[in-house]
């Protein structure tokens, strides 16, 4: 009896360690000193696109997003940790004057942080500015933080545009790509980032940085803006650090060996399979896909890597003029943007393809992580309010596409 007890005392700790080895809690801790690669990748492993998740139910009275409650349930159910594209404006800057825009966002953030204080919400500083920006007054603190004399004025649309007319009216008349080398653009992006940080946002997608950086080949202006955002975060963000990323067609956003952003991101770049109608696959080297091309650097937090971790996402960018055609030289997959193509597939193929993409990325390039599709605008024929939603279809969300349980399964395993 004594021998068995001694054996048990020796063996039991080993058995407990072995039993818990596969279920150890992942760390999501970071602070003003930065974020470790391990913690960063833990977040990227649980990332999901939730476009407009934090905006009011009826922004501008044009588009409705009435499924906030079911979105909250889905996030809790899946265990999502990084909520991508949760708040932004694509034009329509005047909405920023509405207190409800900010109050609604803060309310949802606070609600989910009571459930899980580690969740990160991402805002976006996109490659668009419209004439409506002139409805937004510049707060005095924006001038003060830039060591400029305060002015009683609104933002100037014209002052953000490239002096040689590059990308002016790029999206439509009165809707252009802002030039990061212009001081007014830096004031604008800083105002957005700081305002989002003040309601609890801890990450920013910088959009198409090569477009915005049209006149900044040495990234000098980007360095200035990023430094200002990080300084504001050090003083005001929840954990005194923010995660920055951007679409990087050149494989990174590196200046003198150091990345300006914490991780890279890019569209999936799905390749159509001509002999299998409407099916698609992933392929390293297809067009400008990022697989195996994310540049090595010193990360903003100080650690060094041969390849910066990155996200790939189901992008939305419209439709081609030849839909349902398999053109392997086009960014469109069977004539549709990526999330629209995905939404057009039968439910069983959507589930199968999500599992396939998740495993293919892990095998092909361990630096890559699949950002799950949660909610995103689609441009194909649909009866789902112009959006794809991964929510399990139910009375609470009758327009769900039902990938929620697959996402949960992949993350759990």
Summarize the biggest pleated sheet: 10 strands, mixed
Order of helices and strands: HHEHEHEEHEHEHHEEEEEEEEEHHEEEH
User: What is the percent of helical residues?
Assistant: 25-40%
Strand content: 15-25%
The end-to-end span amounts to 41 Å
Number of helices: 11
Judged by helices, strands and strand pairing, the structural class is alpha/beta
User: Which segments are poorly predicted (pLDDT under 50) over 5 or more consecutive residues?
Assistant: 1-23
Briefly, what is this?
This protein is of the alpha/beta class and 413 residues long. 32% of the residues lie in helices and 15% in strands. Helix 6 (183-197) packs parallel to helix 8 (220-236).
Model description:
- By secondary structure, the chain is of the alpha/beta class.
- It is built from 11 helices and 18 strands.
- It has helices spanning 2-20, 37-44, 68-78, 99-115, 140-145, 183-197, 209-212, 220-236, 338-344, 347-364, 404-412, and strands spanning 47-50, 82-87, 120-124, 129-130, 175-176, 203-208, 243-247, 254-255, 258-259, 263-267, 271-272, 280-281, 297-298, 304-305, 310-313, 368-370, 372-377, 387-389.
- It has a 10-stranded mixed β-sheet, with helices on both faces. Strands 4-5 form a two-stranded antiparallel sheet.
- β13 (297-298) and β14 form a beta hairpin.
- The relative contact order is 0.12.
């Amino acid at each position: 009896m004594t021998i068995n007890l001694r054996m048990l005392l020796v063996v039991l700790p080993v058995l407990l360690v072995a039993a818990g080895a596969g279920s150890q809690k992942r760390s999501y801790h970071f602070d003003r000193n930065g974020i470790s690669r391990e913690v960063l990748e833990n977040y990227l492993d649980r990332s999901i696109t939730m476009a407009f998740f934090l905006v009011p139910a009826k922004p501008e009275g044009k588009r409705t997003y009435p499924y906030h409650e079911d979105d909250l349930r889905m996030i809790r159910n899946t265990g999502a940790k990084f909520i991508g594209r949760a708040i932004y404006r694509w034009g329509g800057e005047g909405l920023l004057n509405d207190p409800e825009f900010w109050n609604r966002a803060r309310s949802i953030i606070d609600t989910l942080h009571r459930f899980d204080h580690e969740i990160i919400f991402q805002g976006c500083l996109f490659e668009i500015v419209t004439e409506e920006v002139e409805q937004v007054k510049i707060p005095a603190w924006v001038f003060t933080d830039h060591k400029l004399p305060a002015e009683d004025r609104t933002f100037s649309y014209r002052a953000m545009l490239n002096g040689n007319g590059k990308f002016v009216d790029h999206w439509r008349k009165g809707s252009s790509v802002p030039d990061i080398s212009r001081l007014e653009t830096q004031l604008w992006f800083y105002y957005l980032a700081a305002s989002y940080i003040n309601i609890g946002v801890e990450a920013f997608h910088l959009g198409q940085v090569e477009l915005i950086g049209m006149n900044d080949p040495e990234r000098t202006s980007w360095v200035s803006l990023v430094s200002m955002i990080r300084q504001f975060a050090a003083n005001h963000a929840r954990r005194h650090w923010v995660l920055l990323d951007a679409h990087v067609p050149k494989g990174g956003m590196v200046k003198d060996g150091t990345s300006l952003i914490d991780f890279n991101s890019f569209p999936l770049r799905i390749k159509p399979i001509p002999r299998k109608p409407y099916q698609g696959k992933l392929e390293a080297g297809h067009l400008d896909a990022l697989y195996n091309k994310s540049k090595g650097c010193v990360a903003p937090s100080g650690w060094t890597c041969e390849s910066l971790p990155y996200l790939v996402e189901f992008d939305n960018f419209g439709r081609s003029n030849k839909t349902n055609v398999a053109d392997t030289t086009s960014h469109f997959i069977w004539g549709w943007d990526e999330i629209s193509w995905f939404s057009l597939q039968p439910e069983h193929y959507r589930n199968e393809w999500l599992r396939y993409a998740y495993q293919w990325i892990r095998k092909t390039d361990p630096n890559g992580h699949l950002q799950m599709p949660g909610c995103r605008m689609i441009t194909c024929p649909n009866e789902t309010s112009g959006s794809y939603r991964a929510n399990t279809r139910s009375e609470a969300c009758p327009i769900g596409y039902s990938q929620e349980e697959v996402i949960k399964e992949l993350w759990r395993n």
